[in-house]
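Recall that a protein's primary structure is simply its ordered list of amino acids. Everything else, from secondary elements to tertiary packing, is in principle encoded there. The following example makes that idea concrete.
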Amino acid sequence: MRLPLTLITTAAVALGVAAPLAVTGSASARAKGDCPKHTGEFGRKGGSVLWPGPYAGRTVLFGCTSFYGEGPKNYRLGPWAKGSKWAFDGSTAAWVIKGSGGKGDRIYVGDAAAKYTWLPGLAPVVGRGAKADGKVSRIVVTGDVAAWVTTKGTVAAAARSFEQDPETVGAELAAAKPDPAISPTTGLAQGLVSPPAFKGKRIVLGRFEAAAGKPLADSLKVVIGQGEGDECGGTNPYTVTAAPIAGQRVGATWFTSWTSTSGVCS
């Protein structure tokens, strides 16, 4: 993984260990120039950019990153369709290919800097109810975690790795236990999932059908915290939450490991 320098830099801390810190920008990140302009580009951030283009007779998503004083690097991330929902933090891209013909959406997450698409077009929800809950309302991404809300109010996420079992956030709040407790349409339990249900890289944090809609989707947030490691790798805590009730954030937290692709770490 390449931590996006629009979000992350390194700083010396006690005992000489360098750990990732959240910041708002880095002027030194683009010492050798930003990525060039591309037709149809979008999401330009910190010198990095995404754009759709032709490849082998189909349209795919490309990404270009420029970090740590290195020149721009391009990578073919995966299939792309016009109108796809997307999120980009300057290194990691997450996007949704809309399903058709009764099929659900498919979610992709790729690290453009590492040249690795680690979520290759999987369904939004794992476990029970997956087939009936396959449409994504909003998707966000920060570092090695992407999160999304479905049109039925399910809050879910994907992490490049889980270094521990996820722990719930806000289980004591009223928002974690909505009424009705069982969905009258799907028969699935509503509220915060405890413990969070995860399969592979995907996790379901909660189901909030009664709160489904734009306010719930807009409340979705991924926060990366202070971690441990050096400029070449380490672990960081991630917290994914949403607010089914205004002012009441519920979700889950866990640690995810990362490895820099900077040439100095090779």
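The two ends are 13 Å apart (CA to CA). The helical segments are 214-219.
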